[in-house]
C-alpha cells in the first residue's frame, strides 16, 4: 500500500522532535516502509507493528507521535497503540513524553536489533529448563524423549552461537562506529 502519492506539508511531523526532517514522507519512503513491513510480517512480526516500526525507522528526527504515525500509515490511533504496545514489549521501540505535555512520542530503540537478540538469548535459556522438565516427564529413551533431547540440543547450540555472535557484533560496532549504537 502506498501511503502518499505526493509529498506534502500535511505529512510533516506536527509538534516537537529531536531534529528537523530533511525530506518529506513521499512515495519512495512509503514504498520502502510497506516493503520492509511486508518482510517483517513474513518473518512473523504482527502486520501493524511491522508497519509502525518501519515508519519510525525512516524518520530523520528519530521520533513520531501517534497522530503522525496514524496519518502516514493511514491507520487508526487504536492500531498505532496496539503496535506500539507490542514493539515496546519486544524492546524495539521506546516511549518518550514531550516536555510539558501528556503526549508520547515513539523512538526506535537505539540498539533495537541487539536488544531483540539479547531477549532471545534469555528466552532460549528458559526453554532449556523446560526441555529438561519435558525430558524427565517422558523419559530420555522414548521416541518423544529423543525428539525433546534433540530440540534441547539444537536450542542450546543456538544459544551458545548467539552469545558469540552478539559479542562479535559489539566488537564490529566498536571498530566501525567507535562505540555505541547509531544516534537518531
TrEMBL record:
Q: Any idea which UniProt keywords this protein has?
A: DNA-binding, Transcription, Transcription regulation
SUPFAM superfamilies per the record?
Answer: Winged helix' DNA-binding domain
Start and end residues of each HTH marR-type domain: 44-104
Disordered, as annotated region: 1-26
Q: Where is the composition biased (Polar residues)?
A: 1-11
Task: Check the record and name the InterPro entries matching this protein.
Answer: HTH-GbsR_regulator, HTH_MarR-typ, WH-like_DNA-bd_sf, WH_DNA-bd_sf
Molecular-function annotations in GO: DNA binding; DNA-binding transcription factor activity
Bilayer-spanning residue ranges: none
Q: Can you say what this protein is called?
A: DNA-binding transcriptional regulator GbsR, MarR family
UniProt source species: Streptomyces radiopugnans
Amino acid at each position: 500500500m502506498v501511503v502518499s502519492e505526493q509529498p506534502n506539508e500535511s505529512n510533516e511531523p506536527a509538534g516537537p522532535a529531536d531534529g528537523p526532517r530533511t525530506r518529506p514522507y513521499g512515495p519512495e519512503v512509503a514504498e520502502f516502509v510497506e516493503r520492509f513491513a511486508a518482510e517483517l510480517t513474513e518473518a512473523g512480526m504482527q502486520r501493524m507493528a511491522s508497519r509502525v516500526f518501519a515508519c519510525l525507522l525512516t524518520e530523520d528526527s528519530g521520533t513520531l507521535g501517534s497522530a503522525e504515525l496514524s496519518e502516514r500509515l493511514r491507520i487508526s490511533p487504536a492500531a498505532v497503540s496496539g503496535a506500539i504496545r507490542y514493539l515496546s514489549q519486544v524492546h524495539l521501540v521506546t516511549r518518550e513524553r514531550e516536555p510539558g505535555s501528556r503526549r508520547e512520542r515513539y523512538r526506535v530503540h537505539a540498539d533495537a536489533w541487539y536488544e531483540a537478540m539479547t531477549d532471545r538469548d534469555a528466552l532460549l535459556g528458559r526453554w532449556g529448563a523446560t526441555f529438561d522438565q519435558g525430558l524427565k516427564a517422558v523419559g530420555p529413551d522414548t521416541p518423544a524423549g529423543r525428539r525433546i533431547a534433540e530440540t534441547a540440543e539444537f536450542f542450546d547450540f543456538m544459544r551458545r552461537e548467539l552469545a558469540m555472535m552478539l559479542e562479535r557484533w559489539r566488537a564490529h560496532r566498536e571498530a566501525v562506529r567507535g562505540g555505541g549504537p547509531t544516534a537518531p
